[in-house]
């Protein structure tokens, strides 16, 4: 846009805004486009072999009243395992996480049972 068009569309615009957005005397260089991006991301490379997770973490919630499945939050417990150094990390490539719940028996207190099993 020319400076006059910008002033008409934006009557309260500052002179710095007009200078930065006008096409007349634009000091910014034109963008450089790649000449041949065809084989960049799809080039034939040696693929890494995925080793799979090295731990299985089972978090079982024993509750008086069962929760909806989407309210069972194992993140806090898995993060504590990671902070304690029991598991190396909580990414899918390092740990397989499973959550279950069951209703507490009569007289049984509510608890969370965490079982960590090495897979290798």
Mean pLDDT: 82
By DSSP, the count of extended strands is 3
Strand order in the sheet with the most strands: 2-1-3
Report the principal-axis shape.
elongated
Tell me the helix content. Answer: 10-25%
Quick take:
The protein is an alpha+beta fold.
Structure overview:
The chain has 120 residues and is an alpha+beta fold. It has a domain at 55-118. 19% of the residues lie in helices and 22% in strands. The chain has three helices and three strands. It has helices at residues 3-9, 15-21, 75-83; strands at residues 55-63, 95-103, 111-118. It has a three-stranded mixed β-sheet with strand order 2-1-3, with no helix packed on it. α3 (75-83) links the parallel β1 and β2 (95-103). The radius of gyration is 29 Å and the shape is elongated. The model has no long low-confidence stretch (mean pLDDT 82).
Based on the model shown, name its key terms.
single chain, 120 residues, alpha+beta, 3-stranded mixed sheet
Write the layout of secondary structure elements.
Blueprint: H1 3-9, H2 15-21, E1 55-63, H3 75-83, E2 95-103, E3 111-118
Parallel strand pairs: 1-2
Antiparallel strand pairs: 1-3
């Amino acid at each position: 846009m020319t400076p006059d068009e910008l002033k008409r569309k934006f009557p309260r615009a500052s002179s710095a805004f007009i200078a930065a957005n006008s096409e007349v005397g634009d000091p910014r260089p034109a963008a450089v486009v790649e000449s041949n991006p065809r084989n960049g991301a799809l080039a034939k490379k040696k693929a890494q072999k995925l080793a799979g997770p090295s731990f299985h973490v089972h978090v079982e919630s024993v509750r008086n009243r069962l929760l909806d499945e989407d309210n069972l939050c194992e993140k806090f417990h898995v993060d504590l395992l990671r902070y304690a150094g029991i598991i190396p990390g909580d990414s899918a490539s390092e740990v397989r996480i499973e959550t279950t719940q069951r209703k507490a028996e009569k007289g049984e207190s509510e608890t969370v049972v965490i079982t960590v099993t090495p897979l290798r």
